[in-house]
Amino acid sequence: MPEWNGKRLLIDLDRKLIIKEEIDEKEQQKYLGGRGINVSTLLRMVPKGIDAFDPRNVLCFGAGLFTGTTVPSSARFNVSAKSPATGMLGDANSGGFWAPELKFAGYDQVVIVGKSKKPVFIKIYNDEVSLEDASHLWGKNVWETEQILKKTLCDDTIQIASIGQAGENRVRIAGIINNLARAAARTGMGAVMGSKNLKAIVVKGTKGVKIFDPRRLTKLNEKLLDFMYQSPSFTVRSTFGTSFLVELYQGLGVLTTRNSREGQFEGAEKISGRNFLENYVEKSKACFNCPVHCGHYFRVKEGKLAGTEGEGVEFETMAALGSKCGNDDLESILLANNLCNQYGLDTISVGGVISFAMECYENGLLSSNDCDGLELKWGESNIIIQLIHLIGRNQGIGSLLGEGVARASKKISGSGRFALHVKGLETPEQEIRGLKAWGLGWAVSSRGADHCRSFPLAETTWKAKEAEKFFGTPKAADRFSYEGKPEMVKWYEEVCAVGDSLELCRIAQVGLNMPMDLLAEIVEAVTGWNLTEHDLLKVGERIVQTERIFNLRNGLRPIDDCLPERFLKETVPNGPCKGHRYDLSEILDKYYQLRGWDKISGWPKAKTLERLGINLTNSKNI
Amino acid sequence: MIKINIDAKICSGCKTCEAVCSLWHEGMVNPLFARLNIVKHEEIGEDIPVLCLQCVDAPCAEVCPQEAIEFNKKTGAWIVNEAECIGCGLCVDACNFGMIRMNPQKNTVFKCDYCGGDPQCVKHCQLKALTTEIIE
Fold it and tell me: Relative to the CA of A575, which of A83, A288, A517, A584 has its CA 20 to 30 Å away?
């Protein structure tokens, strides 16, 4: 028996059943935890062809293999279900303190099926697990919910993952929030939670996490920390967090501007990490056991928005609600960030739908009559704030935008070319015409347009020689070249899948160069399993292929592995990427070859599945 | 002798100190058994490290009927002699800061012992919100 938890909590909200079961050790070795265990569970349990809001949809909360141990930066968890945004795999990831608490309570994963008749929250206090009435919480935002729960349960130290009004209203771009400002935001997991009448999961754990070889782990952690501290990015990552990317992207001409029409923003300096740090940040904030402390506590001290305070703000949010909407008012971005956290909304998708609506307005496809009297002009920060309220409350134009750009564009005729999404998920904040590997990553990602599935930093940070050694061509280090990019994306996807299953933070794991062979040793120290670097990468490949199968069974076709028309047909009009567009055809074929996917059907070969030990017989999803 | 100084203003609230403390003392990660705590008030962004002050006239030691809490002159920490502790809990009530607590499984109390002179919490505090100072 392994020394750590390895337990799953199965909760049926229809029948009010709570079951505790051991996770099969073989399944854990094959999928590790977090994202991996979640997709393995979904493939087994989600009936094929159901709607995402069907009570039979399965909502999984998975902590990682490393979560709750002393391995640095491993405090994350994945929330997975069939997505109401994409109709395929829904999967989002958050940090903070919730997941370690779940491990301290003795569980690796919580799996929720069914739908409660009345609003409930789940209370997990070690072995005592119960469903509690949440009617008094329904209609409250995330911040109010956390406050009320801490007060009524008489404990400030409980950890809470909850939805705001957006999730309750089944807004398809709603996320799940913990620790007030940590968001499992993407792919509408908050809406799935709302559709189950589940308001929150409250956790308190005092059982602790056992470790197979604590002394060895302590030594290996020191080695791992050395790697992180020696990384050239450590200083900037720990000082600025992701906010430094505004200036960096502006310099590279890849800062998404006005619905990704342009690659540079005239107001970049005003929304930069430098301005944020100098004028608003009070101190660094961190997730559990993380030496990178990339988060910040900010406060607006004077002016119209004085008193706005909270934790954040990430680059993706700064760009999504800033440059992408033509907005150079940083204080409004701070407020918008808080509002999204309170309503429980995905800031990337919110920025995506607002910038989409603004471009529709500019082109006469939406009038102020359609928009509750609002004039959706680029850069109007007041309008952005009002739209967030409308989206969160599912009112007026907000109820159309909350459906996401893919659905909204079907109702606004002629707006298809402004709808930037892949597989139904709004695009994040990279100008991919000047970052070819990131573009391929979006096109093939298992959860739709997303920067975290592959995170190919090598494209901009590696030297040509290094890139040649690893990806077969020095051009892999050229961000405008397509060469070597399929190889690069494939490798990064597997590395990231491993990271999401150990639940390491992407910034720490990939951004600060955690070596895979060392991670394999750490797996051994934590669990006692004997796994090599090669085995770990195989787990990564297995997860990518399993997610692919889940998607294929839920209607994915090869033509869905694509990019929005804008990037394929229009060239970037300004900055260092001027004149570039994206040509997907060639590298997509190559990527399919590397993955062993059939060009017509998109399916992996039976041989590949056999090699990876993916068993499809025991699955509801056939 | 050493003393641990706290700078709450720069503490990121990561609780690494709690994790490494419990692993060092109990062989498992469990903040319940950590010898120090980070008190968090997330709604105002506050993180306050709370740890044993190693009082000059330590009330915990004074009330102990077994005289099981002894001062270590080398490290400057009050140390619980587990073999002598009878689990009466008088010390737990005597400490105003909640920094000596009962282990219900062992029925003995536990508190910060400066890890024998090399406190793990200080060693792993990346922002140096916790630092040691050598005192006479």
Answer: A584
What tokens were used for A454?
């592959």
- Residues 6 or more apart whose CB falls under 8 angstroms from that of A503 comprise A33, A34, A62, A63, A64, A65, A66, A67, A74, A75, A76, A77, A78, A93, A99
B91 CB-contact burial (10 Å; exposed 0-12 / middle 13-18 / buried 19+): buried
Q: Which among B27, B30, B126 has the least Cβ separation from residue A291?
A: B126
Confidence of residue A615 (pLDDT cuts 50, 70, 90): confident
* Residue the block writes with tokens 């890849």: A254
Domain for residue B134, yes or no?
A: no
In a domain, B59, yes or no: yes
Contacts of B49 in chain A (CB under 8 A): none
CA distance linking residue A454 with residue A436, whole number of Å: 12
Q: Chains A and B: how many Cβ contacts under 8 Å? A: 91
Across the interface, do B42 and A180 touch by the CB < 8 Å criterion? Answer: yes
**Both tokens assigned to A545:** 């292929």
The partner residue sitting opposite B32, judged by closest CB among A208, A218, A285, is: A208
- Alpha carbon dihedral A484, A490, A493, A494, in 10-degree steps, equals -130
- Nearest-Cα distance to chain A for B34, in Å, is 11
Q: Is residue B10 part of a domain?
A: yes
Indicate the average pLDDT of chain B. Answer: 96
Residue A35 · residue A501 · CB < 8 Å: yes
Look at A293 and B127 and tell me if their CB atoms are within 8 Å: yes
pLDDT digits (tens, 9 = 90+) for A414-450: 999 999 999 999 999 999 999 999 999 999 999 999 9
Q: How far apart are CA A457 and CA A466, in angstroms?
A: 13
The beta-carbon neighbor of B16 closest among A211, A238, A289 is A289
Confidence of residue A455 (pLDDT cuts 50, 70, 90): very high
CA A81 to chain centre: 13
Does residue A619 have a pLDDT over 70? no
Given a cut of 60, whether residue A621 has pLDDT beyond it is no
Of the candidates B15, B23, B127, which has its C-beta nearest A284's C-beta? B127
- Is B45 in contact with A70 (Cβ distance < 8 A)? no
Q: For residue A96, tell me if it sits in a domain.
A: yes
Structural domain total, chain B: 1
Q: Poorest-confidence range of A69-83, A112-126, A528-542, A602-616? A: A602-616
Q: Which domain holds residue A41?
A: 7-204
Q: Are strands A120-125 and A198-204 parallel, antiparallel or unpaired?
A: parallel
Positive or negative CA dihedral for A195, A196, A202, A206?
A: negative
B29:A211 CB<8 A: yes
Characterise A135 by phi-psi region: left (phi > 0), alpha (psi -120 to 50), beta (else).
Answer: alpha
Q: Which of A387, A419, A451 is the last residue of a domain?
A: A419
Residues of A in contact with B27 (CB under 8 A): 210-211, 214
Name the residue range of residue B24's domain: 2-128
Q: Which residues contact B105 (CB under 8 A, 6 or more apart)?
A: none
CATH code of residue B118: 3.30.70.20
Rounded to whole angstroms, the Cα distance separating A12 from A229 reads: 45
Tens-place pLDDT, residues A72-82: 999 999 999 99
Answer yes or no: do B28 and A70 touch at CB < 8 A. Answer: no
Question: Residue A102's domain is classified under what CATH number?
Answer: 3.60.9.10
Report if residue A424 sits inside a domain.
Answer: no
Within 8 A of B126 by CB-CB distance, chain A residues are 238, 291, 293
Spatial CB neighbours of A248, under 8 Å, sequence gap ≥ 6: none
List of chain B residues whose C-beta atoms are within 8 Å of the C-beta of residue A295 = 12
Q: How far, in whole angstroms, is CA A551 from its chain's centroid?
A: 17
A516-530 pLDDT per residue, tens: 999 999 999 999 999
Are A244 and A188 in the same domain? Answer: no
Does A80 share its domain with A50? yes
